[in-house]
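Readers of this paper often ask what the protein records in our data store actually look like. Such a record has a labelled line for the sequence and another for the backbone structure tokens. Nothing more is needed to write down the fold, since each code stands for a local backbone conformation. The remainder of this section carries one protein's record, kept here as part of the documentation.
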Amino acid sequence: MCRNPYTLFTQINIFRSGVKIKDKDEVIRKLNNIIRGGPEKLQVVTDFDLTLTKQHVNGKNHLSSFDIFAKCKQLPPTYEENSIQLAKRYVKIEKDPEIPLEVKINAMEEWMELGEQNIKGYEFDPTELEEVAEKYGTDLRDGTKILMDKLNAANLPVLVFSAGLGDVVHAILKHNSVLHPNVEIVSNFLKYSGKMLDGIRGKKIHVFTKNETNLDPEHLKRLESRKNILLMGDSLGDTTMTNGIQNIENIFKIGFLYSKDDEIVRKSLDAYMNLFDVVLIDDQTMDLPLFILEMIV
């Protein structure tokens, strides 16, 4: 078992050239603190789309949970067409590091409202979600199954946040046999009126509001002793997923950065390095989280 963070970085740098670290000393300090705290003080907070799932497969961007939902045969082609157009309009705003946060938040709220209107009014049998999960939701990052199994065996709580569609997230995790008892999904879930889709249940969650303030007080109380956090995400907004946790001692943030456009990666890298402890460029594995976990449990 590897207990030396310096050894960890040596191993990772051998395997991956796209590892970017702004402050290696600070990263070593955090890892040492988390290791000393042990598994009893640790929780894992992770995004779903493009974090637990790969960012691309065979040259194609991986589908998001909403994209996979759009593949359901019960939905008309106009649903998917509208979803694609909305994504084209708003993803650029979400990903651009030069756009002010307030502008981004307003855009994400507008996207969620329009997306909800696009869902309403279709008769839908939710059993089809298992079929689309099997067909389109099999590409978890390499090593995700091993990581999730180890976290479950160590009884470490895992919060899976998603600004996507929770019903699809649930179906994909279940299909891949990683929906363990220690896993909780915080996301947008479909609302029904009889057999008809009627939008999203409760408060809608977008990339800048998916955080632990959405948890009920009882759940927060169960996590109050777990002051060390391993956070994983692919978006700058993912770094706020721990908002709502009081008195955090150590939080180690891993960012997955990928785009087909090298200029976007170059433009985004500084912003990612300012918010994440380690940035992995075009790394479609869970190698780093697994290395870290091996130092703790």
User: Anything to note?
Assistant: The chain has a mean pLDDT of 90.
